[in-house]
Specification:
Ribosomal Protein S5, domain 2, seven-stranded mixed β-sheet, 2 domains, four-stranded antiparallel β-sheet, 20% strand, 422 residues, single chain, Alpha-Beta Plaits, alpha+beta
């Protein structure tokens, strides 16, 4: 008699095994490509869609990161907690003799043409032109670019930071080839610092307000940093926080918006609100506070009572988010994922009530996660101030939960709902 096999076909699989097999299949379907595979695809797309003519192509790769609680650091120099991704983004670039640069992106049928020297452009081409301006390279250069990656564009700042680092690295190497000089290498600390500073400068110019260094620092961190990163955006210092492999939860992203560009007007408005809250605070008995990071959490209630009505939720949200980063680090080091998930939900509640970046769909996802706590879901939090939410839970609980989320969310949005196990 042949041994009985476990599978998904027929009636041979015990009912208690099937959910685990289903979860395993879903997790394997989300296997991550190696950096070399992303880079090979990027080079192939460049040649296939833009032809073989042109300079020698250079290909770069950057790993992505997700802000667990980090978006508040766009508005003051606080602390950020990032989760590093295995997924990344590859850029191929070569010099181009035409009058305009050309760009192709995997999954986008159009060839995008733009002037690399025109930093006043809107949209994604404007980001590339802003990065070129920040690089200090003399005008006149035009390039061909191809972009391939698995970082959801809805992550906003995380996607933009990975793109900025890869584009600038490729740009400097292309210029070095054109000048017949040695190509710079990421093994050089000075080159990494240059990429960091130029990325922040270019992204800040494009966003219209200070861009948090946390995402750029997370992208540039060495590959041996495989888990969480605590970043001080005031000093640019960072600390890897490793957790035991036997105690790792599963992580996933729910993406409801695939826009490439940050909603600039909204983020500029939030930046002005943060500046107004600080100015109100300084006028009302906190003149010594030069940044919101300097306000002691124990003084928050008093500070909120003193500032103007419109500044109260802004002040409360930003200072509390900064404080919650420290609490999350404590939870990480203890391996207390229930507490960590609760802090994610607290952060999300503040985004909904005080910061006004969350909408009806985010609220639906939050309520669904709360109701699934007994099924192994720890928490969810909006990341990127856009259409993405980060989910934490038991690895084998995530696939079915994500499927239920997609089904529940379809009646609340016309966008295609996508989920990624990371």
């Amino acid at each position: 008699m042949e041994p009985r096999r476990l599978g998904t076909e027929g009636g041979m699989t015990p009912s208690f095994v099937r959910p685990f097999l289903y979860a395993l299949n879903r997790m394997q379907a989300n296997e991550v490509l190696r950096p070399s595979q992303y880079m090979d695809r990027s080079r192939s797309i460049l040649m296939d869609r833009l032809g073989a003519a042109g300079g020698q192509p250079i290909t770069t790769f950057s790993r992505g990161c997700v802000g667990v609680v980090a978006d508040h650091t766009h508005y003051f120099k606080g602390f950020a907690l990032l989760l590093r991704l295995q997924q990344g983004l590859a850029v191929s670039m070569r010099s181009h003799d035409g009058e305009r640069s050309r760009m192709v992106v995997e999954g986008v049928p159009d060839i995008i043409q733009f002037d690399l020297s025109d930093a006043g452009q809107s949209g994604f081409a404007g980001l590339l032109a802003s990065l070129f301006h920040a690089s200090g390279i003399e005008k006149g250069l035009q390039v061909d670019i191809s972009i391939v990656g698995a970082i959801p564009t809805g992550l906003g700042a995380a996607f933009h930071a990975a793109c900025a680092v890869s584009v600038l690295e490729a740009l400097h190497r292309v210029v070095a080839i054109e000048a017949s000089s040695d190509e710079p290498s990421l093994e050089s600390e000075s080159f990494r610092t240059l990429l960091r500073d130029q990325s922040i400068e270019g992204l800040t110019s494009w966003y219209g307000h200070w861009f948090s260094p946390a995402y750029v620092i997370g992208t540039l961190a060495s590959d041996d940093v495989d888990s969480f990163l605590l970043v001080d955006t005031g000093t640019f210092e960072f600390l890897p926080i490793e957790i035991e492999s036997s105690n790792r939860p599963g992580w996933a992203i729910l993406e409801t918006s695939h826009d490439w560009t940050q909603p600039m007007e909204a983020s500029i408005g939030r930046f002005r609100s943060a500046q107004k809250a600080l100015a109100d605070l300084q006028k009302k008995a906190f003149s010594e506070v030069s940044s919101l990071r300097d306000l002691e959490h124990r003084d928050l209630d008093r500070a909120v009572s003193l500032v103007g009505r419109k500044s109260r939720p802004v002040l409360k949200h930003l200072v509390t988010e900064n404080r919650n980063v420290q609490k999350m680090v404590v939870a990480l080091r203890k391996g207390d994922w229930q507490f960590f998930g609760a802090l994610m939900l607290i952060s999300q509640a503040s985004k909904q009530q005080d910061w006004n970046t969350a909408g009806e769909l985010h609220d639906l996802v939050t309520r669904t996660a709360e109701s699934a706590s007994l099924d192994g879901i720890f928490g969810v939090v909006q990341t990127g101030e856009g259409g993405c939410m980060l989910v934490a839970g038991q690895p084998f609980s995530l696939p079915a939960f994500l499927d239920s989320l997609r089904e529940a969310a379809t009646s609340h949005t016309t966008e295609e709902i996508e989920t990624f196990i990371i």
